[in-house]
Amino acid sequence: MTSPKTMTIAKAINESLRTSLETDPKVLVMGEDVGKLGGVFRVTDGLQKDFGEERVIDTPLAESGIVGTAIGLALRGYRPVVEIQFDGFVFPAYDQIVTQLAKMHARALGKVKLPVVIRIPYGGGIGAVEHHSESPEALFAHVPGLKVVSPATPSDAYWMMRQATECDDPVIFFEPKRRYWDKGEVDTAAVPAPLHRARIAREGTDLTLAAYGPMVKTCLEAAAAAEEEGHSLEVLDLRSMSPIDFDTLQASVEKTRRLVVVHEAPVFLGTGAEVAARITERCFYHLEAPVLRVGGFHAPYPPARLEEDYLPNLDRVLDAVDRALAF
Amino acid sequence: MAHLSPPSPAAAGPAKRSARPAKTPPEATGPGHTPPPGWHPRIDPAPLLPEPEPYRLLGTPAARDVDPALLRRLYEELVRGRRYNRQATALTQQGRLAVYPSSTGQEACQVAAALALRPQDWLFPSYRDTLAVVARGVDPVQALTLLRGDWHTGYDPRARHVAPLCTPLATQLPHAVGLAHAARLAGDDTVALALVGDGGTSEGDFHEALNFAAVWHAPVVFLIQNNGFAISVPLEKQTAAPSLAHKAVGYGMPGRLVDGNDAPAVHQVLSEAIERARTGGGPTLVEAVTYRIDAHTNADDATRYRDAVQVDQWRAHDPIDLLERELRDRDLIDDAELKAVAESAEALAARLREEMNADPVLDPMELFDHVYAEQTAQLREQAAQLRAELDAEEDR
Ligand SMILES: Cc1ncc(C[n+]2csc(CCOP(=O)(O)OP(=O)(O)O)c2C)c(N)n1
Ligand SMILES: [Mg+2]
């Protein structure tokens, strides 16, 4: 038995990929700069050295080609885990993902499986130039056939990546890049919760804050701040944007009677819209306030100097909390 | 194809590298044993083939045909460009720039690209091409706006006919083709010059752009700066082609191969291609063989993927040294002129330091100003939300 280790989210994903490469010869890692360099965030550091260039592949620079060839590899039983270098560069691959990856299983009436994982470092807060801070998860969650997840802790990063790699469906794996260096415990001998199960990150009684990825930490900070003002907030880490674990969410909201959904992506037609609509349906008679949403504005992601104004922060979350509590 | 000045390998017969034996048409043995109906060779590929080795001028007798004033102009811009790169990189270390992709080692391509264009032409740069943008006349401080974490472009693309620095690789290339085609539709003589890296040639947009350009016979020139790497990935993992310039042939346009560190050679090859485009000759693909002396950006650690020996080899083939040697050997520049060039470069660096030391003041409300031609009600609502947040912050 190995004892739990403290590591960063980036390292946890690295360890997870390493374990998958060790345990399943069909697992491949591919993408731009993932081999010799170990990825621009070093998430795949050392993997090519240990597993060779045939299993950890520095591909030509072409996202459509990366995902397209991953589909072909999957048709022959491989399990490619591909990296898209930054959120803003997934779009050349969008055609392959939407018209092929998402649909082929259904088109073939289940006869073929496409166990492809697409890793995408996403979100803002790192002071980058344009196209390096996007949150496009809703564009993928909207597509039937894709599973869309995002971990918020090192433990989830490790386990969710393991589960995504073992999953027979395509999984879009959004990695909260500004939290890559956050540390936490990872128990590689634990029994993990199912991939698409939401997690209560903090228990509370007055209001539920639902978030995923980079915003979970922000919500936990908001809950700590609210506690000082005498409000007990529950923080629910959705972990999966498709499918969404509405049962866990419903149970939480039936208890707290108020819900605020938080993400970095624009509020307009974001994950929060689906959550708000569904929870309103399911919990109509329990709700004391309308479900409120907190997120980015419906404007292009701004330059680094303005991202503090764009991104949801503690104040914007607490503002929504106050409004919901005052209802 | 008189413009393809150095003899292309076509003139010397088919390239030797071909692994297949030369094919002679088989004799027909019966009815139907003929080429498919209507088939005929569409064009002769031979004149499209690039030079067998990168075209050079410096150190060759042909250099004497180049206007000395152009050599001196190129030299001054190279020196200023290198100083600019060094200063910008230093500014990243002081937190004044978010990131800087240096073009040190590639200055000859940058400068030649800018100087080969006429005012009516358009330049389509990538993120690494700040020097070309500055050499074309965009203000050197404004040109750093994007990399400073300030607004995404910072200059008016129409003022100097310079498209925004482009980060998503190769996406600028079809734009250049469209703009060039518009010139044909409008009947003017504008040419578009688009820059892309070796890595960018793997993207679908590169191929689509070349195909459109050739099919439309658009007045556009593509310049690939082959600096050996796409971040950590060397050229051999990017392409199996004999050279990137060869890719032109498959689309039906000429490919040209040039020493990217030989500024007058790059200038000449680009000028010929641009002239050809301007006079209705269609597109050209130019591959300039060069090297990225610095890391990918200040955030990159190049020692992880390449060794110092290679870098040193390229330092010995430095674009500034090559041109300076020519100028000195032929007494085309004197010490006073060299000093003046150095001073001009220092003055540029000093201006960068000074102006970049002030924090730009951005109005957050501008976030909502240019999303659409006219602001929507929805955005006005969001702007009001941010206004309220900012006011609350001030009260706190
Ligand atoms: C579509 C897209 N994918 C990935 C990236 C990330 N990226 C930025 S630069 C770069 C390497 C580009 O290499 P190359 O085209 O040779 O240009 P160079 O940086 O050498 O000038 C990569 C992968 C990007 N900017 N756009
Ligand atoms: Mg390159």
From TrEMBL, chain A:
Gene3D superfamilies the UniProt entry points to: 3.40.50.920, 3.40.50.970
Keyword Oxidoreductase: yes
Entry keyword set: Oxidoreductase, Thiamine pyrophosphate
UniProt superkingdom: Bacteria
Keyword Oxidoreductase in record: yes
Protein name: Alpha-ketoacid dehydrogenase subunit beta
Pfam families given in the database record: Transket_pyr, Transketolase_C
Domain called Transketolase-like pyrimidine-binding: residue spans: 7-182
Database matches in InterPro entries: THDP-binding, Transketo_C/PFOR_II, Transketolase-like_Pyr-bd, Transketolase_C
Cofactor(s) the protein needs: thiamine diphosphate
Source organism: Streptantibioticus ferralitis
From TrEMBL, chain B:
UniProt key word Oxidoreductase: yes
Sequence segments annotated as region (Disordered): 1-56
Residue stretches in coiled coil: 335-396
Domain of life: Bacteria
Pfam families: E1_dh
Domain Dehydrogenase E1 component: 85-350
Cofactor(s) needed by this chain: thiamine diphosphate
InterPro entries: Alpha-ketoacid_DH_E1_comp, DH_E1, PdhA/BkdA, THDP-binding
Keywords: Coiled coil, Oxidoreductase, Pyruvate, Thiamine pyrophosphate
Compositionally biased residues, Low complexity: 10-32
PANTHER family membership: 2-OXOISOVALERATE DEHYDROGENASE SUBUNIT ALPHA, MITOCHONDRIAL
Protein name as it appears in the record: Pyruvate dehydrogenase (Acetyl-transferring) E1 component subunit alpha
Organism: Streptantibioticus ferralitis
